[in-house]
């Protein structure tokens, strides 16, 4: 029995953002199409403040089971131990036999597939003439969002806001050099939000950052930062008259941004338009006019890891990349 | 960052049953000593009837996190796909950094550490002059139990019973040739049970197999077969006057053999003597006289995989066995 081993550097050249966007679209369709089994994830909190999580997903049609271990929150790793502050490992199993077909480094995967979410939602929900992105938050995931969205929409300007000037300046320099798209540093979050065709939040904040009356009609909102209880980025009033789309209604109403307006009674569960997978499957409409505000609440799902890592595996097999190892002779 | 890869054949020569018994003792002590974090396991049931489970354990003192993926119930694997009907993979992480330090084949681990349970319980709870084992059930795990117990107790005779004559004859031939211990095939379960100094059940049965009045005073019972809801091997009346020891009180009262007498009101939770780890730590007595019936109910814990696989890893490093692979350069 042969297991393919893939290093981080191999993974990085085996997959393009275009591939990831395709894989994430497939994941959403599979999920809303009843092709997915993904039990609640399990994790361990270390005394140092770091964390390691294990996310399991089964894609029935493809007969692939994935398990992603991913760690984060170890700031001393690089200096004290000479390893990254967050790492990841993915196991792929052939669901017909449960044979281990691949062990790959998974450090890059979460960032890539989370970026791709934005692009998928932009295709389904943003105005076709969207040219301006507003980015609230300027860290790694904010960059990944731009990388993904520019694959599917011609972006001409980015308005950015963050808590620290240093992070903003670095973001401006990096984005302008990587994409040649001018970045305007906003004087306030409000100023930035008012400019948005597409509004992205990646702050992982713990309170409302974006007020409802800042958001102009026709804006598409990509709410990335809230993926667990206690996190919040939006004034829940924004949800009152918006078209609300979730990656997983079950997850978003439990721990996503969508939980907040539900909890406050601003919306009822029936006010959620649907899951992005339902839109991609053609079961529900996406954007219906240029005036509506659309919100895509993304909490992240194991099936995204599954389809993305399997695509990497397929590309490796096709391109003869990687090292085979026989755990069982 | 280097990750050690270990094949099944390497794992098999890296660990002795003596090592496993030591590792399982350490696991029990760690668990009852508050050194363990092991979240509920997650799994996927495949349409074919097979299953794959993921068990996560963190041993705080050692700073080691283990994740065991183990599959079973794929009878067509050998003939149709050329792979075993059940397989396993273990990941070990350094808990200080969450770096992946080892990927090893885990096919042998569950069998070994489950066998070792019996030996640990026999040391703590069986009469020192126990010479006769009764084995109800004659499959792989029944053999593993003998392999483990003979490491800690001089066994002179084995009485065996099972549903099928064929399985019994094969067990007799195998055990007599491996250990030189005579195996007596019993005419009935009752006849076998009445002979026991140590009574082992490994049938994974779904109803009472062993009646209370068959068990003679002084018997030590190792209840292995019941590790999930719906399974049962004993008349719950056996628990009424016995010294009841669990691997994990939380697990055994939820899904072990101990659940049945609790559910029937035959015992209360306070009647459970304690956890085996408490006995090993010297916090509670083991067997106190030659007349009491002792029951060890074992449901299996992730921390047993943790300490056992880490011992294998240490032996590999010491003995220069295995292959290093750099997932992250």
How is this structure best described in words?
The structure is a homodimer of 329-residue chains. Chain A has 329 residues and is of the alpha/beta class. Chain A folds into two domains: 3-110 and 303-325, ornithine cyclodeaminase, domain 1 (2-Layer Sandwich); 117-300, Rossmann fold (3-Layer(aba) Sandwich). Chain A has helices at residues 8-14, 17-32, 77-81, 109-125, 140-149, 165-179, 189-194, 249-255, 259-263, 276-280, 302-319; strands spanning 3-6, 36-37, 42-45, 51-59, 64-72, 88-94, 99-105, 132-136, 157-161, 183-185, 198-201, 206-210, 220-223, 232-234, 243-246, 272-275, 294-297, 323-325. In chain A, strands 1, 2, 3, 4, 5, 6, 7 and 18 form an eight-stranded mixed beta sheet that branches. Chain A has an eight-stranded parallel beta sheet with strand order 10-9-8-11-13-17-15-16. In chain A, strands 12-14 form a two-stranded parallel sheet. In chain A, a hairpin with a 4-residue loop joins strand 4 and strand 5 (64-72). The longest helix of chain A has 18 residues, at 302-319. The first copy, chain A, starts with a strand and ends with a strand. At the A-B interface, strand 3, strand 4, strand 5, strand 6 and strand 7 of A face strand 3, strand 4, strand 5, strand 6 and strand 7 of B. Chains A, B: This is Ornithine cyclodeaminase family protein. Chains A, B: Pfam families: OCD_Mu_crystall. Chains A, B: It comes from Aromatoleum toluolicum.
């Amino acid at each position: 029995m042969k297991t393919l081993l893939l290093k981080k550097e191999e993974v990085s050249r085996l997959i393009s953002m275009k591939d990831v966007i395709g894989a994430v679209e497939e994941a959403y369709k599979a999920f809303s199409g009843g092709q997915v089994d993904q039990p609640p994830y399990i994790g361990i909190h270390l005394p140092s403040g770091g964390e390691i999580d294990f996310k399991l997903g089964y894609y029935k049609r493809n007969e692939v089971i994935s398990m992603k271990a991913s760690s984060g929150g170890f700031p001393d790793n690089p200096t004290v131990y000479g390893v990254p502050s967050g790492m990841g490992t993915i196991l792929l199993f052939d669901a017909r036999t449960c044979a281990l077909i691949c062990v790959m480094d998974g450090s890059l995967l979460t960032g890539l597939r989370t970026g791709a979410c934005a692009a998928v939602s932009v295709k389904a929900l943003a105005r076709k003439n969207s040219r301006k992105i507003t980015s609230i938050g300027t860290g790694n995931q904010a960059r990944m969002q731009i990388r993904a969205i520019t694959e599917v929409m011609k972006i001409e300007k980015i308005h950015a806001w963050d808590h620290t000037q240093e992070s903003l300046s670095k973001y401006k320099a990096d984005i302008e050099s990587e994409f040649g798209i001018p970045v305007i540093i906003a004087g306030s979050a409000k100023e930035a939000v008012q400019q948005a065709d597409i509004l992205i939040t990646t702050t992982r904040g713990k309170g409302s950052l974006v007020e409802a009356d800042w958001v102009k009609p026709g804006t598409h909102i990509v709410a990335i930062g809230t993926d667990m209880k206690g996190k919040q980025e939006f004034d829940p009033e924004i949800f009152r008259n918006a078209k609300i789309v979730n990656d997983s209604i079950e997850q978003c109403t439990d721990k996503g941004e969508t939980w907040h307006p539900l909890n406050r009674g601003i919306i009822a569960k029936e006010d959620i338009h649907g899951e992005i997978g339902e839109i991609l499957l053609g079961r529900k409409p996406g954007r219906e006019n240029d005036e509506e505000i659309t919100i895509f609440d993304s909490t992240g799902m194991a099936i995204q890891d599954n389809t993305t890592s399997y695509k990497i595996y397929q590309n490796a097999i096709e391109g003869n990349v990687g090292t085979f190892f026989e755990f069982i002779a």
